[in-house]
Amino acid sequence: MIEERFDAIVVGAGMAGNAAALTMAKRGMKVLQLERGEYPGSKNVQGAILYADMMEKLVPEFREEAPLERHLIEQRFWMMDDRSHVGMHYRSEDFNEERPNRYTIIRAQFDKWFSSKVREAGAIVLCETTVTELARDGRGRIVGVRTDRRDGEIHADVVVLAEGVNGLLGTRAGLRARPTPDNVALAVKEMHFLPRETIEARFNLKGDEGVVIEAVGTISRGMTGMGFIYANKECISLGIGCLVADFQRTGQTPYGLLDHFKRHPSVAPLIAGSEVKEYSAHLIPEGGYKSIPQLYGEGWVVVGDAAQLNNAIHREGSNLAMTSGRIAAEAIGLVKSRGEPMSATNLSVYKKMLDDSFVIKDLRKYKDLPPLMHTQSENFFLTYPQLISKAMQNFVRVDGTPKAEKEQATLKSFVKARSWTGLFGDACRIARAWR
Ligand SMILES: Cc1cc2nc3c(=O)[nH]c(=O)nc-3n(C[C@H](O)[C@H](O)[C@H](O)COP(=O)(O)OP(=O)(O)OC[C@H]3O[C@@H](n4cnc5c(N)ncnc54)[C@H](O)[C@@H]3O)c2cc1C
Asked: What region holds the FixC-like C-terminal domain (predicted)?
């Protein structure tokens, strides 16, 4: 056993773990952070969009120091069928601001930099160290961790579980259930390298401007899922993910979907001639508010993806991870400053603070959407995209058919596919869940 005792041990050096470790170290707490990867970021897969507001709260000067790719000036949403996409694009010069709101990043580089700030703040960061078990005292309280290193038991007042969605520690210790297949998506991602000028020409960009494309429709073959394309400086991150339960149900493969997505006529020209240098796969928590487990207990708190804190509707995860990590650290700091023990009662302040933040407010707002999308996936991800694409084609194609007849034909196609009751029901269900 390692004799040295820490104020806190943080398991994992992703967004949530780094936010927690940095916040506690800045408060002068003695922090040990353990990461199983060769370096922070080596195990991480993300699109990736970084949300500046949440990062700024942790490292105000990050814009000058961090390895950022492009600041986002345009967001495209595509609803696709096999040959077309109906798009909604929002591009604004307002995003060419002095302190941009969102950036694309490459996690392997970004996490390494983020971790350097954690070290600078005084935390000890040990990589290539897997936490194998949580250590308990005679009364069942968590008092530290065991690792795969020799003499691996280390003690602390509190353990912050920031082990990500795949984390087995909390589930093995009985602190939370394993995520179910209808609560997690499996996403696959590739990095397509192209010359900088080619990316800028294809996406209509200049300088460090960036674009994000998020796409739904027949690309997920009736499963609950989404594709994404993010423009970085010299590469394009492209990926697709669907609920694990849907992969199980349909027998589709993630590689098959990705291949299909890349060959879509709206996507292929964007990546033509690129060199693929990286391929990765990762789970994403998608269950939303109803899947959030117990967030604290005797001597422990859980943050980020490990706590299922992911907003699948807005595709936000890293900002919820950073915020929950920071808030957990502030809650721990508060308990410590009062000289009180890290008991479940005292650590419950973390949940109160999180409830008051956008993290829980947003997840609570959308609490009924993930199950609705799942149970109605054939309609929302297959039928409607096809109908909407046909309606658009009918609207723009000029062929001598009177406009009133065209409108009638479009209306009829919707009613034929879903019936009046079905259409009304879908509209009500969406409105109710969105509210
Ligand atoms: C394909 C994809 C695209 C995404 N795109 C976006 C996006 O554009 N924007 C966004 O905000 N979010 C995005 N997300 C979600 C985002 O990546 C996550 O929400 C975020 O990374 C969660 O951070 P975390 O720190 O909780 O977990 P992670 O980043 O997964 O970090 C967990 C860390 O814990 C370590 N670890 C696990 N177990 C142990 C152990 N036993 N011992 C030691 N270390 C351990 C892991 O190695 C890892 O480094 C995306 C996710 C995926 C998969």
From this structure: 369-435
